[in-house]
Amino acid sequence: MADNPMLKFVTRGQAYPAKRPAGSRASDFDEITERYAVESAEEQSARCSQCGVPYCSVHCPLHNHIPDWLRLTAEGRLQEAYELSNATSTMPEICGRICPQDRLCEGNCVIEFSGHGAVTIGSVEKFITDTAWEKGWVEPLVPGPERGQSVGVIGAGPAGLTAAEYMRRLGYEVHVYDRHDRAGGLLTYGIPGFKLEKHVVMRRVDRLKAGGIVFHESFEVGRDASLAELRKRHDALLVSTGVYKARNIKAPGVGSAGVVEALDYLIASNRNGFGDDVPEYRDGRLNAKDKNVVVVGGGDTAMDCVRTAIRQGAKSVKCLYRRDRANMPGSQREVENAEDEGVEFVWLSAPQGFDSAGEGERVSAVRGTRMRLGAPDASGRRAPEPDPGSEFTMDADLVVKALGFEAEDLPTMFGAPELGVTRWGTLRVDHSTMMTSVEGVFAAGDIVRGASLVVWAIRDGRDVSDKMHAWLKQKAKAKTSAMEAA
């Protein structure tokens, strides 16, 4: 009997791909981790225990066939491993880079529970798909037989791109509308290159364009066409805009120059990385070079901002978060990366005001107070409350607010007051059909579930394509029946 290539976790230690030294990586926007050599990927995949109940797959929103493609990788069958990985995900190499595996698949790995260290699932996923691109195994998008029906997708983020791909495969004419001049949504403009290099996103977009999906970039619904006008152009619409409205801080001086939104800051940096002329970056308004930077927030967006500021040559970078390290929502791996690169975390702290030389002048300092954790709130987390007498001041030439995102007022923006929303501003849908209150208009991704993970947006895009397909088939059937009756 051949030797079992798996279950090597007892004799083989966990080993992630090497990180570039903090000193060198903090001077550019290239990804910070090296890629596995073939032998390393095989060795790390072979640590999988092939458990009877694969909690890694259960806790993956896409329910990827993780143990199966780990085994194929361990056996050196990389093309088959890629094909299996690609069967459930439209963007495996992107998820491999930016998913919080420590909270999802790897965090629920059985051998992690046994104390041996999780299988490095995300790194292997990235490896096999990058290899597939290099080897030419990634096949073109081949449209199905034309159905004579058209679908419009509003928003070119992960949910919209995923749905567009599936609908094109089914034979629909697909048009994607996006407000930015490049597709990808936050994958392109919100996530820095050191986590996700932009060519990785652009090659996915190029593949969709080559498959006949038509992209209308720099197109704003409500400005260039109303929702009603797009409904006339298409047999069905999908709204997958994401959530872009920044949560604000209520404190004196918040309107001072130099107190900026996280997304504005990240978009300017990413545009600069593309080689665009960005006046706000060039004149220093959205550039941290030689500045004392304070980022307010504790999520992954805050981590993106502090690490971007380091690379832009900030004089100092501090992150203020109102809870402690154990209670922050962002990835602990990202915190470690930020600390390695020189970011100072000021835990249990919150801003109380922003000082400047006068009205309209640039911010010069942040006034804050220490916090302490009180009784649990409705979510079960201990609520932060000010610690009396613990006020402090720190220098700041640039303050970035990274407190999360909420839904924009889409009914007003789209000129569609009939579009129903929840009390949080997200689009209201019938969850059995994923259709909004407007007939033939579906919605998916963050605009329905609120700010969430890219992998959940991909899952929603996959699910909504099934719902739209079923509805469009019924629509075509009804049209045929009516014509025959006439």
Automatic annotation (TrEMBL):
Residue stretches making up the Dihydroprymidine dehydrogenase domain: 26-136
SUPFAM superfamilies: alpha-helical ferredoxin, Nucleotide-binding domain
Pfam family, one: Fer4_20
Lineage, broadest ranks: Bacteria, Pseudomonadati, Pseudomonadota, Alphaproteobacteria, Sphingomonadales
Record domain FAD/NAD(P)-binding: where: 151-461
Names of required cofactors: [4Fe-4S] cluster
Source organism, top-level taxon: Bacteria
Matches recorded under PANTHER family: GLUTAMATE SYNTHASE [NADPH] SMALL CHAIN, GLUTAMATE SYNTHASE [NADPH] SMALL CHAIN-RELATED
GO molecular function: 4 iron, 4 sulfur cluster binding; metal ion binding; oxidoreductase activity
Keywords (A to Z) from UniProt: 4Fe-4S, Iron, Iron-sulfur, Metal-binding, NADP, Oxidoreductase
Organism: Stakelama pacifica
Keyword Iron tagged: yes
Keyword Iron-sulfur assigned: yes
Gene3D superfamilies the record matches: Alpha-helical ferredoxin, FAD/NAD(P)-binding domain
Protein name (database record): Glutamate synthase (NADPH/NADH) small chain
